[in-house]
From TrEMBL:
Keywords: Coiled coil, Intermediate filament. Residues 41-82, 153-191, 245-318 form a coiled coil. It comes from the Eukaryota. This is Keratin 98. The lineage of its organism: Eukaryota, Metazoa, Chordata, Craniata, Vertebrata. Residues 44-352 form the IF rod domain. PROSITE patterns: IF_ROD_2. One of its GO terms (molecular function) is structural molecule activity. Signal peptide: none annotated. InterPro entries: IF_rod_dom, Keratin_I. One of its GO terms (cellular component) is intermediate filament. Pfam families: Filament.
Length: 352
């Protein structure tokens, strides 16, 4: 095929297809004539020139995107190199959290132990309080019995005094009766002194003296018997009361001793209970403070981890976007290289 004029076409490309372009240069500087416009080869070459220009723009865009991608990868590498201490290994935090959980568990166990000890001490204190109340009731009952016995002793003393007064009164009446009897006997003897029949009058006098003696002896015997019975009953009653008083005093002394021991035990348990309660309050405060402190630290670490994870996700998203864009451009580049190869084949065929 002959053309009105000859045109030299060249195709060259850089490494990897970069800088690839198609250029054409006229072999002679003559002007365009009508035959060139009517020749179909000229239209084909113009189309190829247009495609060559489009290919050059695509390759330039691919080159710029590859350069931007390389710069972004360099920035990512520099960012990782400048932050070597930023790692996403949470094992150190897991160890800290595990240690804190163990401490919290131990504190909870100690707290439960203290609560159990406090409850046991409270139950023991309630038991001792109940025993104290029972002993106090027994003591009051014993004191009431002692007071009643003392009242009974006072009544017996008053009765004894009354009986002694009655005995003295009877003795005085007996003395008065004896005196009256002697006076009557003296008067009777004086009146009977002038009579003749002395023997007849003397016999009744002897009978009266004997009767008075018998009466006196009878009253004295009855009085002595009553006195002895009263003294025997009184001594027996006093001995019984004294024995009961001694027994009650011993029981009272034992109750007082046991009550004193119970008071000492109750005071000791109260002191131990207050100590355990103070220790429990201190441990509760320390536990709350520890939980608050480590909770704040954990919250700050969680915020830091979340921020770093967000940054990492953003970087991964950017890398993914750049990768997809790079793959898309690489696909376009591959297709363009195939087209360039096809154009080169066509141009080489035209030159032949």
């Amino acid at each position: 095929m002959s053309y009105p004029y000859s045109r030299t076409l060249s195709v060259y490309g850089g490494a990897g297809g970069r800088g690839t372009r198609i250029s054409s240069s006229p072999s002679s500087p003559r002007a365009f004539d009508l035959a060139d416009g009517l020749d179909p080869c000229v239209d084909e070459k113009a189309t190829m020139q247009n495609l060559n220009n489009r290919l050059a723009s695509y390759l330039e865009k691919v080159h710029s995107l590859e350069k931007a991608n390389a710069e972004l990868e360099q920035k990512i590498r520099e960012w990782y190199e400048n932050r070597p201490d930023v790692t996403f290994d949470h094992t150190i935090f897991q160890d800290t959290i595990k240690d804190l959980r163990n401490k919290i568990q131990l504190a909870s166990q100690d707290n439960a132990t203290l609560i159990l000890a406090a409850d046991n001490a409270k139950l023991a204190a309630d038991d001792f309080k109940l025993k104290y109340e029972n002993e106090l009731a027994m003591r009051r009952a014993t004191e009431a019995d002692t007071a009643n016995l003392r009242k009974l002793l006072d009544e017996f003393s008053l009765r004894r005094s009354d009986l002694e007064i009655q005995i003295e009164t009877l003795k005085e009446e007996l003395i008065i009766l004896k005196r009256n009897h002697e006076e009557e006997m003296s008067l009777a003897s004086a009146e009977a002194g002038g009579q003749v029949n002395v023997c007849v009058d003397a016999a009744p006098s002897m009978d009266l003296n004997q009767a008075m003696t018998e009466i006196r002896q009878h009253y004295e015997a009855v009085t002595e018997k009553n006195r002895q019975e009263l003294e025997s009953w009184y001594e027996t009653k006093i001995a019984t009361v004294q024995q009961e008083v001694v027994t009650q005093n011993e029981d009272l002394q034992n109750s007082r001793t046991e009550l004193k021991e119970l008071k000492n035990t109750s005071q000791r348990l109260q002191i131990e209970l207050q100590t355990h309660q103070s220790m429990r309050s201190a441990l509760d405060g320390e536990l709350e403070e520890t939980q608050a402190r480590y909770g704040d630290q954990l919250a700050r670490l969680q915020v830091t981890v979340t921020s770093l994870e967000d940054q990492l996700s953003q970087f991964h998203a950017n890398i993914g976007n750049n990768k997809r864009e790079y793959e898309m451009l690489l696909d376009i580049k591959t297709r363009l290289e195939h087209e360039i190869a096809e154009y080169r084949r066509l141009l080489d065929g035209d030159d032949r």
